[in-house]
Amino acid sequence: MNHNRKDLHIMMIIGAVANGLAVGIGGLIGLLFKRGIPERMKLLVMQALGVTVLYVGISGSLKGHNTVYVVLSLVFGAILGELVDFDRQFTRLGAWLERTLNMGSDARIADGFVTATLFVCVGAMGIVGSLQSGMSGNNSVLFTKSMIDGIFVLVLGSTMGIGVCFAAVPVFGYEAILTLLANTVAGVFTQTVIDEMTCVGSLLILMIGLNMLKLTQIKVANLILAPFFPILFYAIFS
Question: What mean pLDDT comes out for the span 74-97?
Fold first, then answer.
């Protein structure tokens, strides 16, 4: 019985595994391209990516329904993020990885990790796809998301380096947990809640785009918990 249950759980998270592998492999392929791209071309690609990320952020931010919840999510996310100082923790982790992997100080592992993680984790496809996988065993949404994420991370890896590959870990963990708990948490993730989470997360993606274009220096990592606050607000006040 336990063996069958274990096999069932493994089958359920195949979509999450595929997404994690797509991000990791896409990032590694991007690294191969990085070595052969001239610096001036990397700059142009980074600027083009920045504009693309702005577009994705603006598009997703229009899905919100309650401006008050969006503002409160960003405020509470910022307060909690500053208290923990995720930006500093990620930077320290990136510096340790740079030393461990014998990479130069320009590797920007932390920047690549945060940018890729937010892009692949934020949005309705990850939530809806994970719930669908857990409740019906249908992984089609997560398989589609895997292809999209793999292509984006490949391009991102060609400019931002190895840090993007590590985004494979949080996207797998995030989707695997949602998949395994799908029947329990499905009632929490209404379409309204998903739209609000997408809106807040997309505003973070918008900030990343501004940073990529060197227009701002926002510590987006310290806002990384903000997209989860709409779950709490709708649970308490709705």
Answer: 88
pTM reported for the whole predicted model: 0.82
Does the pLDDT at position 4 exceed 60? no
Q: What is the pLDDT, as a whole number, of residue 228? A: 92
Q: How far is the C-alpha of 216 from the C-alpha of 205, rounded, in Å?
A: 13
- The DSSP H or E segment spanning 189 is none
Helices (H), 85-167: 86-100, 109-121, 124-136, 140-160
N-to-C CA span, the chain: 40
What pLDDT is recorded for position 226? 93
Tokens of 143: 């398989």
C-alpha to C-alpha distance for 76 and 226, rounded to whole angstroms: 7
Q: Three-state DSSP class for 16?
A: helix
Report the candidate in 128, 146, 149 with the shortest Cα–Cα distance to residue 197: 128
142 contacts 15 by C-beta, under 8 angstroms: yes
Query: Rounded to an integer, what distance in angstroms lies between the CA atom of residue 66 and that of residue 71?
Result: 9
